[in-house]
Design brief:
alpha+beta; N-terminal domain of TfIIb; five-stranded antiparallel beta sheet
């Protein structure tokens, strides 16, 4: 991911900054808890294509 592109991309919902997760090939919005996929080097910035990070955390098994 080109660092210059990261400087200008923002979350389409809250207009906040995004963090690049190189391993997952996603752009993460911490404010909205969404992860936008990067496919073939192109960020997919549609809200309906984003992965809900809250749902992923809720699916993890808890110890008890």
């Amino acid at each position: 991911m080109d660092p210059r592109l990261l400087d200008i991309l923002v979350c389409p919902i809250c207009k906040g900054p995004l963090k690049y997760d190189k391993a997952a090939k996603e752009l993460i919005c911490n404010a909205d808890k969404l992860a936008y996929p990067i496919r073939d080097g192109i960020p997919i910035m549609w809200a309906d294509q984003a992965r809900d990070l809250n749902a992923a955390a809720a699916a993890l098994p808890t110890e008890g």
